[in-house]
Design goal:
Blueprint: H1 18-27, E1 31-33, H2 39-54, E2 76-81, H3 100-114, E3 130-136, E4 141-146, E5 151-153, E6 156-157, E7 161-168, E8 184-188, E9 202-206, E10 213-217, E11 222-228, E12 232-240
Antiparallel strand pairs: 1-10, 2-3, 3-12, 4-11, 5-6, 7-10, 7-12, 8-9, 8-11
Helix pairs in contact: 2-3
Length: about 250
């Protein structure tokens, strides 16, 4: 089974506030940290992301997290291996290994998840085996409103995702202008059956500036990526709950 989050050796930024994260999760809101990674860390991860893209490792994929229908998305992604991967049953190739600068930021996201107590007695968060590296090209690439996990029946969910954690690795100066687009729009308070944001009490737009991290409840927060007019790079992890994950599948 996936390992538990127990390693407290990775330093978190001084601005990280575990109590504030839990409070945001309980309200069904995202928690945003604008200094989660330094400029040098972002630059190193950005170079690695460009290399992955040049090697054609980032590819289009289908969206499979929303009940009823797939949502339109035009990003390109790679699922990168964060831990030693056993041989596949069919002899196929495992996910590519995560490059080191990106891995540093993934480990920090894991440390952030390890530092919080999942609200409402939901259980212990577990470490995912893979992370998603994504790029939205500058030609208006977007992702329609969706949740990262949707309920499909009483106590049944599309996948194991409980907590979404991501960090942007865009260079300084990118996405400083409103017209650059690419904002993460969160539809706060949208009803569970709402797939468009029509019932949201308010919206929150997060510019994807390098070093910014966002954590939110994968089952509650309806969100979308607005059309991006600059190349937009992000690293994402989804943490399952021990009570629900056995065994953990790779993200869809």
């Amino acid at each position: 089974s996936p390992p538990r989050l127990a390693d407290a050796s990775v330093a978190l930024p001084a601005s990280f506030d575990a109590a504030a994260v839990v409070a945001a999760l309980e309200r069904g809101e995202p928690w945003v940290c604008t200094d989660f990674a330094s400029a040098s860390e972002v630059s190193a991860a950005h170079v690695e992301m460009e290399a992955l893209d040049s090697a054609a490792a980032l590819r289009s994929t289908a969206a499979g997290t929303t009940a009823g229908s797939a949502k339109a998305r035009s990003d390109r992604v790679a699922f990168v291996q964060l831990r030693e991967e056993p041989p596949t049953m069919d002899g196929g190739s495992p996910s590519p290994r995560c490059p080191p600068a990106c891995l540093t930021l993934y480990r920090r996201l894991e440390a952030a998840a390890a530092a919080i107590a999942w609200p409402r007695g939901g259980g212990q968060l577990l470490c995912p085996r893979v992370g998603m590296a994504s790029v939205y090209d500058s030609s208006g690439a977007r992702y329609e409103a969706h949740r990262d996990n949707d309920q499909v029946g009483e106590g049944r969910w599309i996948n194991y995702r409980a907590l979404t954690a991501l960090v942007y690795v865009n260079l300084p100066g990118e996405f400083d202008r409103q017209e650059d687009g690419g904002q993460l729009r969160c539809h706060i308070g949208a009803e569970a059956t709402d797939q468009s944001g029509a019932t949201a009490k308010r919206t929150l737009d997060v510019p994807p500036r390098g070093g910014t991290a966002v954590l939110f409840d994968a089952r509650r927060v309806l969100h979308e990526v607005l059309p991006s007019h600059a190349r937009r790079f992000a690293l994402t992890l989804w943490f399952p709950l021990a009570a629900a994950a056995a065994p953990l599948l790779s993200p869809a």
